[in-house]
Amino acid sequence: MTKPDPSQGALFDNAPATVTFATPEVQIRQLREQINLYNYQYYVLDDPSVPDSEYDRLFRELQALEHAHPELLTPDSPTQRVGASPLKAFASVQHRQAMLSLNNAFEEGELTAFDKRIRDALGIAQVEYAVEPKFDGLAITLTYENGLFVQGATRGDGYTGEDVSSNLRTIRAIPMRLPVENPPALIEVRGEVLMLKRDFDKLNRQQAERGEKLFANPRNAAAGSLRQLDPAITATRPLMFFAYGLGIAEGVPQLSTHAAAMDYLASLRLPVSDQRDTVQGLAGLLDYYTRIGAARPNLPFDIDGVVYKVNSIAQQNELGFVSRAPRWAVAHKFPAQEALTEIQAIDVQVGRTGAITPVARLKPVFVGGVTVTNATLHNQDEIDRKDVRVGDTVSVRRAGDVIPEVVAVVLEKRPADTVAYRLLEAINHQCPVCGSHVIRQEDEAVARCTGGLFCSAQRKQAVLHFASRRAIDIEGLGEKLVDQLVDGAHIHTLADIYRLDLATLSSLDRMAEKSAKNIIKALDASKATTLARFIYALGIRNVGEATAKDLARYFGSLQALLAADIEQLQQVPDVGPIVAESIRQFLSEPHNQQVIQDLQDVGLHWTESDGAGTQQGVLTGKTLVLTGTLPTMSRDQAKALIEAAGGKVAGSVSKKTDFVVAGEEAGSKLTKAQELGVAVLDENGLLALLEDKQSSHDD
């Protein structure tokens, strides 16, 4: 019997506490009761309460006990049957041929033993296998009579399922009539209903927009959708179907292999997996497992393993069945991607941009093929939404190379003394790396360290931004060189960049003396800059290149900017409350003030003015748009003239645009200006405007 596969992301609310049993008889009885409960939750309610790994552990424990004590084995044990009874809301369907499930293999040794049993039973040296992904959906059977779809049912307990024909009719991937001239008299198609990843994401976005509950994962979404009592609801859900085998088949061509049967189903326009294949022997099985495992993240649907079947149908018949599964097939499961563990502490990490990320320190747990000890909690909003606390038992997910994350809390296991976690209070509003103030702005989910120039966690990012072309423009100071300088402790603050000498630079990897001299030359040249570039180079959050120019133009000097309060900052064009708060927080940080002073001490300089706050430029308050090619000046030169006169250059035309400066081959911006009645100038017109306004200003 296939265990419940609570697909990644389920909300596991009812996981039991670990129980110590007294005798084998008591252990077996209680394990059966627990597994039967999980079967009911998974198969009937579509509401699993534990992840795959927990169920697998209990199921294998029961198998081991029954093997050790065969006198205690009974026909009603979960190891001897497939699942739970169907919901009474649907009519029952007796399967013409039982929908038995597969035994599972988790380790290579188990797979080796499976292959050996097959070879020994058949008396052959090597077996050909049909191989395919193990879909993570809901198993169903489709019945066609004379080519017409007449009934569809769930697996149920393997012998009796639920009649979901009306809902299956809403799935467009399932043909209502088989497209062949002489259809088989009777055919049962076995397969899986699931939801593609992209459709699942779209469905959850729609659920969120409507303020409705989100689905935990594609498997739960598919199962819940198929088992709606109202087919109209199912019709709104993007369900998919893939066939993986045949049940009863009358009037079909002679099919000697499973691969031939799948090709036949494909010829009937029934969806089958493109990843199916045939392989030779154990080596072929292991190679396929590796191939599909590598492709898994990019598949359009979720899978939790691969399925191996003896390809020859004659050999399948010879091998037969055990009580709950065919001897000729096995499911090779991938390592569990979800598991239960405990949160022992919550720490924080500081990212390259100053983002403060809470991280759960976990009791070590094996999940996704590795031992996991940490999981991201993202931000305070996510902590609040999931109500994560130190001491909680949680479900942890890891898929591929994705950073592990906490999926949900098992509330039934929560200790009585837990308290809600508040990130800013836990760190006393201070960066754990540099001690700078940590803030969370109203429009952001992430809290951030304000010590951008000082914080070692942000050092590489700060240096790279500072040296970038539109900032201080230090030619040759790229990412690889910055990595070496920071990792080698040659740079602690931005001012240290200008303290680098020829000997230090020449000693670095791939840095010859000539290259080192070029860096020294570039450093010296970069000391002469502009106030706008310097402000932008500081990396103040929400202050881009245009805002830096506005600040430089308005205040004129660095000291005036440093002394500005929130109200004064908001007098600058396009600086609102959020940007003003970012600037004030950054410039108020003592660490940042020290770095700014150090940069001036090592020689960075620029020309200052009284600023537009006290002296208006000739184009102050005016917005211009440049389009086309001007006769004698580049667009950057025209932009510099306009900005020097106090004007702002925008990228698009709107009703707020005062002038459009158009050159040759002006495009849609000129057309838009004419439609809106915006004044259009050529290059001479722009120069005349500047001269006229300058003359008027001088008068």
UniProtKB/TrEMBL annotation:
Identify the catalytic residues: 134
Name any one Pfam family assigned in the record. HHH_2
Which SUPFAM superfamilies does its entry note?
BRCT domain, DNA ligase/mRNA capping enzyme, catalytic domain, Nucleic acid-binding proteins, RuvA domain 2-like
Work out whether the entry's keyword set contains Transmembrane: no
| Amino acids binding Zn(2+) | 431, 434, 455
Keywords noted in UniProt: DNA damage, DNA repair, DNA replication, Ligase, Magnesium, Manganese, Metal-binding, NAD, Zinc
Q: Name one GO molecular function term.
A: metal ion binding
Q: What GO cellular component is one of the record's annotations?
A: cytosol
Q: Which cofactor does it need?
A: Mg(2+); Mn(2+)
Please verify whether the record's keywords include Protein biosynthesis. Answer: no
Q: Please give the name of this protein.
A: DNA ligase
The encoding gene: ligA
